Amino acid sequence: MRQRVRKGILVFSMLMFPLTFFFLSPFVIVLSAAKGILNGSAMVFGLLLLFSIFSSRIFCGWLCPGGALQDYVSAANNRKWNSKGKNLSKYIIWTVWLSFIVFLWMRNRPLKGNFLYLVNIDQQYIIIYAIVMSVIYLFTLLTGKRGMCHSLCWMAPFMVTGEKFADLLHIPRFRLKSVPDACVSCGKCSSVCPMGLNIAEMVKSGIDSSECINCLECADSCPKKAIRFGIGQKQR
Q1: Which letter does DSSP use for residue 227 in this model?
Q2: Residues 127 and 213 in one domain
Q3: Cα(206)–Cα(141) distance, rounded to whole angstroms?
Q4: Residue 189, pLDDT above cutoff 80
Q5: Which residues contact 90 (CB under 8 A, 6 or more apart)?
Q6: Tell me: the pLDDT tens digits for 106-162?
Q7: 201 and 150 inside one domain
Q8: CA separation for the pair 183, 43 (Å, rounded)
């Protein structure tokens, strides 16, 4: 039941993406920064970072419209796309992208806040939206399970930063918790993971991966309840 609700929310989020794109766009924030404006996407990205300190990457697993699109595209290519090198690329891209935005903010001070700046469905918007959707679709089709999340996502690093900040300061946050003794190594958890993570192996040593999107697919599929979840600190 929980997964039906989650997937229903994701579908709704994807249907609303033509409107919410203004506040999640990697391009609109750059256009706004060039004018010295803190727009809606800048504020939303900041909120996602703060939200992740307590909620980890729940947004990715339950609300992300790009993630929803990838989950459906994965039906055509369910190959696992997950490795240190592939995952590292998004942080490199994010660092360059965010550094450029900060540069534009510093160059165009004093900054002005305008949440609805550039919120207008015009030709420019349609072109940018089409480019982003095409990149998400084609990259996932060519790579596999949530390939965009692993390698190109511009939002995931904000939330991973929030998680690391919480762990550094020992702030309890939402996380998966394993019960190794209950695991029978059936492998169901790994087979249903939309991120292609080796959950079965992680259960043995405590589930702790910055690539986990807290969708709870593994917990809901485990016949022995070896995977649980809640608010807490890192397992030792």
Answers
A1: E
A2: no
A3: 31
A4: yes
A5: 150, 151, 152, 153, 154, 156, 157
A6: 999 999 999 999 888 888 888 889 999 999 999 999 999 999 999 999 999 999 999
A7: no
A8: 42
